[in-house]
Amino acid sequence: MSALDNTATQAGPGGTPRGPVGGAPGGAGGIIPFLTSRLREIGIFIALIVIVLLFQALTGGRLLTAGNVSNIIVQNSYILILAIGMVMIIIAGHIDLSVGSVAAFVGAVSGVLIVQWGLPWWLGITLSLILGAVVGMWQGFWVAYVGIPAFIVTLAGMLLFRGLTQMTLGNTQITPFPSEYRQLGGGYLFPDLFPASSSPAEWITVGLGVLTLVLFVVTQVRQRAKRAALELQNEPQVWFLFKIIGGGALIAYLTYLLGVAPNSRGTPIVLVVLAVLIIGYSVVMSRSVFGRHIYAIGGNRTAAKLSGIKTRRVDFMLFVNMGTLAALAGIVFTGRLNSAGPGAGNLFELDAIAAAFIGGAAVQGGVGRVVGAIAGGLVMGVLNNGMSLMGISTDVQQFIKGLVLLLAVAFDVYNKNRTRG
Fold it and tell me: pTM of the full predicted structure?
């Protein structure tokens, strides 16, 4: 292989450069250039760790307690679900302002179906998810096939579905929901199987933690071996070991907090749902034809269309997917509150959009990752939780969250200009 080949670069999913083909420096000297080239991807995780450590110190250790960590997961679960769909929409160059209203509307309809009409909880949830897909079809039709900008379509949808929510509920609340329905939003896996009074640990959570740890290590090792076999650039060995040890320690500590620590309550059901969604959508975006088409459309819509990609169909399916995830978020939120109200879902769309941009999605489209959006959502969640523990007023919280979003977008613009330079 020639010297010119060794300096060739390849573009990975999301438009980030993979770096020179061939072996990467294995010593500590190669870490700085590597981290600089991957600053967009790695920066959000470093920021999340710094924020967690900061609030752990400022709150006197109250942030990383078993009960509070469970609360952070449950309280932000519906935003994280929305962030998964939202980052895909943003990567394709669109935006969706209606997801909060859609979540409220689906939650209201599920209340009518299950509480007022007496349908079985599982049937009510299934019909509610179908309703979310139908809402996505409605909005996707106007965006993909009529050609109205997504900003206008979803702005109209925000008003339309908020009005339908109030019409469905009659400006009243529907409550209570069946216990099975509530479990999705705030329940735990088999809570009576290993009670704290008779078991030193919640062994289901411990088992899931060990399985996750093994899968994490095996996946990372296999990916590194595959890239080496293809003579592609690998991350420096020191960084690889640091990632394995750090990621493994994080999984082990989270397992301890949820399943072993005092006042631990086990694995939240919604955490399992989130894990399935994160893994599934990450695979779709990085390894499927549909995911590559989304990145291609966001990078250059005209070129993608000329290359044979059915851009209208991709746009349509993106909004169907977003509607379904908004419905799931609405069900989770309604189950957690045990109530469907006309004010549900307020500002959910802004939190989901902020999570995507803080997580590294580009304003112009074509760049972003599902895992990054989840990290961005957790940054917002930890900020909310940590400031609440410190007794900071909501107006100051809104100011700080807005500043964080602005800095995240500014960082994205800086990275883009630096890459061009």
Answer: 0.89
Q: CA of 152: how far to CAs of 95, 156, 299, 320, in Å?
A: 9, 6, 22, 17
Handedness of CA 195, 198, 201, 204 (dihedral sign): negative
Shortest CA distance to 258 belongs to which of 16, 72, 36, 10? 72
Apex CA 177: angle with CA 172 and CA 179, to 5°? 160
Largest CA distance in the chain: 72
- Residues 251, 216: contact at Cβ < 8 Å? yes
Find, among 92, 87, 100, 77, the residue nearest to 327 by Cα: 100
User: Which residues, in sequence order, are CB contacts of 374 under 8 Å at separation 6+?
Assistant: 80, 83, 84, 274, 278, 355, 359
Tell me the backbone φ, ψ of residue 268, rounded to 5 degrees.
-60, 140
> Crossing angle of helices 179-186/66-91, nearest 10°?
80
Instruction: Work out the percent of the chain whose per-residue pLDDT is above 90.
Output: 68
